[in-house]
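S1.2 Input.
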Amino acid sequence: MFKSVQLIAITCGLFFISPILLNAQTTFTAEDAIKVKTLGSASLSPDGAFLAGLRSESQKNRFDVDHFRFRDPSYIRPAVYELVIFDIDKKSSTVITKGNIRNVNWSPDGSKLAFFKVENEKYQLFVTAISSKKAEKVTIKSDLAIASNSVLVWSPDNNSIFLSLRPDQWMEKGMELYREAADGPLTVYDSEEPFLKWDAIRNHESKSIVSKIDIDSGESQQILPEGNYSSVRIDEKGAFLITEANYPLKTSYDRKDGFEYEWKKVDIKDPSWVSVFYKKSKERQRYTFSKDNRWIAWADSGHIKVQSLLNDEVLNLTEGKNQLSASDTTKVKFSVESWSPDAKKLIARSKQGLWLIDKEEGSVSRFLEMDEKDKKAPRYTVRDWSANGEQLYLEYAATDKWERGIYRHNFKTGQMEELLKSNELYRNWRLSENANRWMYYYSNGDRPDEVFVSDANLGNRLQLTDLNPWIKNKKFTKSELVKYLDTDGKELYGILYYPVDYEEGKKYPLVCEIYERFFNNGYRSSMNIVANQGYFGFRPSVNLEEGRPGVAWIKGVTAGINKLIEKGLVDPEKIGVHGTSYGGYAASLLIAQTDRFAAAINISGKTNIISFLGDSPRIGTRNYAAAEVGQDRIGESLWEAPIKYIEHSAIMYADKMNTPHLLLTGEGDWNVPAANTRELYYALRRLGKKVQWVNYKTAGHGAGWAGTEETYLDQWTRMLDWYAVHFKDKDKEEVKKP
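S1.3 Output.
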């Protein structure tokens, strides 16, 4: 429906029309990747008249972080953003302030914008009146500091803000815990303690006091005592606050029994009055709240239950109504999707489709049928309602091709209307509270996103940002969705990125970037840098199975490569592979199973899953849980299945690795310590293999990419040189052949 055309854009307060640039395009480099700007935290005012967002060179915000101070309560990670407000109707924009900013939030009437900004190494509360567009600091009348994980919730009258303050002596107690663990001189670990030491530090880090702040006077009223709160909501009349309180019990290895959870309602005028509507339990209860925050809905054994927070009555809306039809008695299991604006209706989901549940009439009806057996059926995500609740907006996404869009279902007519369907990339859809204006991110699928707005019918399309006008003079890759079968015959997809200046019929080197599954396209700096070297880039998917994930990469990645070779695109002698974190781990495992790669790079990936179990102290039990019940998918403990742990440790097969291997780590990486990767370097060197280990002393997870601008560029130089040298070696081998 929409085509890629030159569009009117609002940029830095000027009404700007992007010119068609005729200059010759130049190579997109790692230096360029650093300069790419994004607009994060973008949100529409309730009336849709304004949009606020944080503009930054996002890659730069990964630089200059002191990774050695992870969990240090006195440390605030550096970042620089510009807070920009776009006046949509006037087609202008204003930079409000610049700095380390977060939690940008509109007041209910849209007249003010609140946010936190770091000043003097502390978070401060600021409020901007749209009429003046000036950031004014709210001087809070309290000795307590704003918590780094603070909530920011407006009162319905637009005059107050609820936020989280640190308890008295919080910093002193936190630093005592941190220094004992990080600096010593003596650190005691005792199994009789309920928490691992770094879990205790994390639990202390989460403590806060929720208070109400008058934005004019700065007066502070405590609403919730010291505790661990993961959710804070205010009902539409400002009468009560709803929160989920979490109570740490012990360090948990299975991610299930480490906390108790409780939901309660607190009277704002008299915070001593507390009503608990979900009593403490190790089972966490997830609620869907109505717009006015006065109704809750949840799924219970496949039924939909609701409760008004003004009384204790619980209604089961699907009891006796959970069969497909009068003729088909198949029992339906529901989950909650969304409340209507007036809290009279609910959308529920089942494997068989989407359902409208009328709380007032007691009816349950399916309005969108889905075939649970059809794996290629498109997916529909509930996005929002029309203001009167008579229409529902659904985000559409095909599962076998790049096709996305928005549909609108009319409950009165029963008709589904297509508003947008496109093979270009539309995402992050947001509808203003009055349901009159859409905001969304758009790109052609290869270049960085820009932010657009449209009316409720997706007409009157207006481009708000032109964040990177200079990229029009840069060479960008073209991406393509590739379908293939792994060696088990299971259908998978990968994203192929064409070399810039691609010539049909010519075979090119290929660089694979691996992790788990990939489908959607979109700007990716790494693949553009690779494509500008004259290589194909490829992000293949794998089918990871619990118990035997290690073979997934050989089954999926190599099958995807074979598909590209069959198409005549790739030089089979010049194939490289790299990955970061879990992808780096996968790259090392992959070359232990095949010699078909000319070069391989592991970026911040573990190589010995056995030693890794206790190798990252600052993240507690994560490594045990990852192996036993998480991403590593081994599914059993080391003592239940020791052979599986050996099979999934690349170092155990170092003697079988014949691919030149580059290992990149960050000394400050608290996620995957450099020492774990170092083990593989020593093993490969001992075995006479070609290996190089580069450890960036100031960097973190992501190695040089998570260090400084200098280390970022150095890492790219080393990676590209690694591929270039070893691809060239293949040419030398070819010459030597008789």
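S1.4 Remarks. Residues 301 and 333 are 7 Å apart (CA to CA).
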